[in-house]
Amino acid sequence: MDGALEVLLDTGSFTSMDFDGVQLPVYTPSQKARCLLDLVRSKGEQAANVLLQYIKRKEERSSSSPQEEWTPPKECLLYQKKLRSSVSAQSYFLSTNGRTGSQSLDDIYIQGHLELAQTSSEAQAQSGPMELKDVLGMLGTVNQEADTVLVCGEAGSGKSTLLQRLHLLWARGEALHDFLLVFPFSCRRLSSVKRELSLKELLFLHCCWPDGDQNQLFQFILDHPHLILFTFDGLDELKHCFSDLEQGHCCPTQCAPIPTLLFNLLQGFLMKGVRKVVTSRPEVVGPGLRRYLRKEVHLKGFSTRGIDCFVRKHHCDPTVATRVLESIRSNTALLGLCHIPVFCWIVSKCYKELLGCGDAEGSPQTITDVYLMMLQHLFQRQETQRNPLDIGWLQEHQETTLRLGQLAKEGLEASCYIFTSTELQRCGVTEDDICMGFLSLSKDLSSLRNCLHYEFLHVTLQCFFAALFIVLTPNMERSTISQLFQSKDWQQQPSFPRACLGHCLAWQDVALKEAAMTAEMPNIQITATFVSGLLSHRHHSLLLLSCPGNILDRKVKHVVKCLSKGMQKHFKSIPQPVDEEKKSMHAMPGFVWLIKCIYEMQESKIAKNTMTKLDIEHLKLTYCNIGPVECTALSYVLQHLRNPVGLQLDYNSVGDVGVEQLLPCLHVCHS
User: Fold this and answer.
1) pTM for the full model?
2) Could you give the dihedral angle defined by the CA atoms of residues 52, 53, 54 and 60, in that order, rounded to the nearest 10 degrees?
3) What superkingdom does the record give (predicted)?
4) 128: region left, alpha or beta (phi > 0 left; psi from -120 to 50 alpha)
5) DSSP class of residue 21?
6) CB 356: neighbour CB atoms within 10 A?
7) How many CB atoms lie within 10 A of CB 201?
């Protein structure tokens, strides 16, 4: 580039202004080359001939001299060594019970099932199973000009662990050989950064601080974007909406808000050529982002074989592992749940409680059952005698549950997942509560800010504690449950003092508020699902010791009313059939969510009352993210349909286990 510009300037083909325009520092090498070519074309034949002759001479000179293998500068290699050490330390352990335990990722990692979003099931079968290395490979590429790969998956499907595995393999030199430097980012942590940053500050402050010349190293990164990889975990937790209206930003040295930096990186306006891998839940990613994707990969959780491998890796004693697997296989509902890695981890962790359940009927049937088992496990672990907990175990730990529940609920209302010590104290959370193991120390943020920051072990656990708080608090406002099931009104409660979580989100911007609510919707729905499950008759005797029966009954009726109202809204949207066509309902994911809530309540009467009002001949459930867990709920509810229907489940992840779960409702399916 430098030689070509000098020749064009010396021959009078370029002016000094042209020369400086091509060399702008905001351009990447490929952008400079494109700018030079466009400028030469605009100058005409003479400039084109000068450039072609220069290139020809360079080629002749290079062909006559021996080629030397290119090696990065020494400063860059030293930084790579330090960065690898830092990334390896962060990725080596899979955090489990807060401060009390950790497992090596090598000892526990099992590859989840990966699928390309744009490929048919037939093509997937022909190409074989997708492997971890294919995430950044050419397989499934739909836009070679784009640099961003999106990995989508439901909560608990293993997105963060997948990235952690990629980071660890790169740090050891076992994978991602095309990338000299890998910079990992957590969107959860970035969302708490309020001040504006430049790209250089983002890289060095939040990943690894260089010992040598920062400017020289950063210039190398700018000059060699194809050697750099950025990963962003949890785009759905950024509390910001991706749109084309986002402020443009292409200068790597200029400061900007974190969302602006991130979205311009993903679009390719900033640091074009750098490869990016982003994880998110599917509901949050709109068409505005998908336009800029190189490819989209769906993470579907464990296969049946994956469940087997995970449980056997989790238990050193093969006898225990075999008993746990036998217990899981004997309960098809539990087997379906274990396809989600986070549920499989909980079940494996709480194996003593699982094996103590007795027959399949007494073992966990719903997601709520699994999380109550985890709650019981962590409470029992703190008992000195380790005796089996009686029916009053929740009442004995009610104060801890309510304190953590208040923290969880207020955090969800403010789209906040990381909490300072001050915020814990405001909710009354004690050191003993922290030691229970439901909260873990956010190490990166704590070291960065010089004060302790905490987060729940998993976002679904935060949702579960929020649900417990809503159910167990006697004076909880009636409108809370209504707003929970309407979702859109959940974050508009004026009574909540948002200043207490001021580092999480500024609410003055209406567009930002709406974007945050869109991103928060999946967590609100998970919380509503847990509320439905906790108010099931199965858990009435457990909760009765912690909350008056009349209040529980009132909440049950209110949830049933909300579910009925939600289903009726879907039924009313069914269009009238065209002549000679069957009456059809094309269900949305929200319909499947309501069915899951009904299943969590385990009340066949509610399912029957709901389904008898549905008068259709064809139920279309395509693109609804349906896996084995959803199949269990669908079967439970759809078996009460008045008339047989044709059930369409294309473009989901039903699988063999899902088909088995659907068996109880197949008698009402004519196709």
Assistant:
1) 0.81
2) 110
3) Eukaryota
4) left
5) H
6) 12
7) 16
